[in-house]
Amino acid sequence: MIECMEDVLTAPALAPPVGMASGPLGAVQAAAREIARQTAVQARAVAAFAATRPASADRAQGEPGAMSPERWARRAGMLRPVSEWAAQELAVALSISTEAAESLLERSLTLVHRLPLVLDALEDGAIHPGHLWCLLEHVAPIADDALRASLERDLLAWMAGRVATPAQVGDKVRREVLKRDARSAADRLARAIRQRGVSARPDRVEGMSVVTALLTAPEAAALVAALDAYADALPADPGDARSRGEKMADCLLDLVLRPGESDLPPVQVALSVVAPLGALLGGDQPCEVEGLVVPAEMVRALLAALTGHPFAAASDTAASDTAASDTAASDTAATSTATTSTATTSTATTSTDTATTSTGSGGGGRGAAVDGSPASDEVLLGVTAAEAARYEAEAGELAAWWAEVERRVLAGEFDAEPPPQFVDEDGPPDLPTRPGPAPPLGPAGPADGWWARADRAVELAGDAVLTARQELSRARRLVTTAARADAADEAAWANSPAGRVTTAPDALTALTAATDHARAALTGLLAATGGGGLADRPRLVLTDALTGALLTLTDLPGLRRAAAQGGGLGPPGPTDGYRPGAALDRHVRTRDRRCRFPGCRRRVPRGGDLDHAVPWPTGPTTAANLVGYCTGHHRGKHQASGWRHTLAPDGALTVTTPTGLTAATTPPPC
């Protein structure tokens, strides 16, 4: 069934995720919702103001005094129809910088024209201004209007009734964009990787500076984890009053500036990598590295560097092997996701630099048209649909003006004497002239009179309209050619192994669609043991096909044992003592991954903070009675008065505040 655009644009029923408290906290909530409403009101007003300041009033590109081509090229597409002076006017009105005014203009126009449902939710108080950044950065740029509207609606439905912080919404947005617009996201990532670098800026405190390293997510996670491990490995000294942050900074300086003088011991860094089976087979499914959502190609490059297995890129086109598929399928029939905890040294991590610059995602839709006519990148990208629409509008304006002039001429509205507005010693100064014989004498008199000049202007206007129509026709052909090429590219990618793996509904279908090379690499990874680049044996995560809830962690030997014994696969059994056994500990940490307190995104520490919902020994040490917290929220659960934490058997956690507000979280994916 084809989904109509009206259905796509229907906003889900949204309301603030929690009720109103009483007293001062209720006043805080009311103020926050009013701030959200006023933010939406401001966005609509700014967009309305921008509509009164069209760019057509500015000097056109190429005219003396116009905006420089460099600035014009950097100008956001959403601001192209707006006068460049609108930002300055807004800056004066609000006492802000011009840069801040342009940012406000762009954000407001984007919300009004590209994210209307988000703007409605903001106005209703269902979301707050902090939620906007991830939607503006990741959803608004999607070019496909139907895809963008559908994703906008689904994200708002996901947020309905849920206490979700901006960071949590950002994770969900990145995951959904990677699912639905993976190739465009991969292109953006490839461009971003080329921006990697290190910079420094002065801090707000005199004498201090902030060093920023723009790295890929796995590189950044490995760097911070390594510095953290170096800080832990420093000899204990009762007189050392440095904080952990100070120790990490000193270790960084020692390693970089004094590598030959440092006596720091070597450390090993553990990164938790969660990758769907399809991603390891060459698909575009989103993955996780230390809880951060990353593209599949980045994880394939990281695992290839650590294990030596050359994982397939999305562009692999080797034919699939039925025998290999049957063998691999028998081992992984019930799996949907693979997870591995990897250990990297600094050398292994930096090897992902060049590997991740290849997006392996099929690229954009460029090439020849289906009718065989050539279309270069420059031609296909030369005219957009928006520019074609502008050509058509301008041609319509010229045609209307020309028709009005002709009507007035034929109606005899021009008198024998020049009209008052044309009275000038030299005649109208700006009427263009053209070569050729002089027109015949008319009722206005000589060929060089005002009538002849007006007649020449009408003819020149006709020529301009004809030229505009020709350019419009050419623009339409180019847009059609680009659309055909993009459709052909999409079809080719969908029929490739990467496309079939990405759209596979289950693991068996993905294995069948994968190439021999991808299946061999996956088999090698699953057969690997701890050692080398891997700190632990890779394990398979079995999830519920409908809810995505974790069922169990297992590996190939575990699958074979379960098949031989005829038993089902489920969470590890209970542990007799207070501390969970290794298998149960691993299961709960994989299920929760981040602190389960509503709004918190801190990682569950590796060494502790798995809490018994019903205190031990009254409550058992089982998966249904354990939940992961960060250290601060673990302390708060036991020490903050008036709070209630209730854990359901499926892992859903409900937290009730002292004022009676409730919020629930479920284990990821959610």
TrEMBL record:
<dbReference type="InterPro" id="IPR003615">
    <property type="entry name" value="HNH_nuc"/>
</dbReference>
<feature type="region of interest" description="Disordered">
    <location>
        <begin position="415"/>
        <end position="448"/>
    </location>
</feature>
<dbReference type="Pfam" id="PF02720">
    <property type="entry name" value="DUF222"/>
</dbReference>
<feature type="compositionally biased region" description="Low complexity">
    <location>
        <begin position="328"/>
        <end position="359"/>
    </location>
</feature>
<feature type="region of interest" description="Disordered">
    <location>
        <begin position="563"/>
        <end position="582"/>
    </location>
</feature>
<feature type="domain" description="DUF222">
    <location>
        <begin position="71"/>
        <end position="265"/>
    </location>
</feature>
<dbReference type="InterPro" id="IPR003870">
    <property type="entry name" value="DUF222"/>
</dbReference>
<protein>
    <submittedName>
        <fullName>Uncharacterized protein DUF222</fullName>
    </submittedName>
</protein>
<feature type="compositionally biased region" description="Pro residues">
    <location>
        <begin position="429"/>
        <end position="443"/>
    </location>
</feature>
<feature type="region of interest" description="Disordered">
    <location>
        <begin position="328"/>
        <end position="374"/>
    </location>
</feature>
